[in-house]
Design a protein that fits this description.
By secondary structure, the protein is an alpha+beta fold. The protein has 4 helices and 8 strands.
Length: 157
Amino acid sequence: MEEKNRRRFSRVNILWAVRLDFGTVEYKQFVNNVSLGGLYIEGDFQQVLGDVCIISLKQSGLFSEEAVHAVGTITRISKHGVAVEFLSMKLDSFFFLQATLFSKAVDPALLGREFISNNIFDLEDDLILFEPFHMDFQTMKQVQNLLLRPNPSERNS
């Protein structure tokens, strides 16, 4: 019997540089695959489930500017890497991510159906909030503040 895929969104294989900033520690790796709900990164991470981070994704070869800036949480840890679920991102990052995934997906129509049927997004001002995390109001405000502070690349300039 075939096991049903429990993922809400199809993964798209994309090689992007990623920086995960947990506040006290930062990791720089490459993403193996991305979906509208999160990403998987291979590597050795010293984090625990539920840790929240700032995610900075850059297209390979375009290291001058971030393509996607988001906040996420560790949802799965394996011996090979971590799965990070998006909690929130600015609208422009979401549109860029969505357009890129549609253009690189093996079945863009499936991705479109998943987007419509898995309506797990809320919009507040210019931030997309992802509902699977079920944030309370205080946590939501903390996530928003993480996205509104200067990007790490801007702080180092």
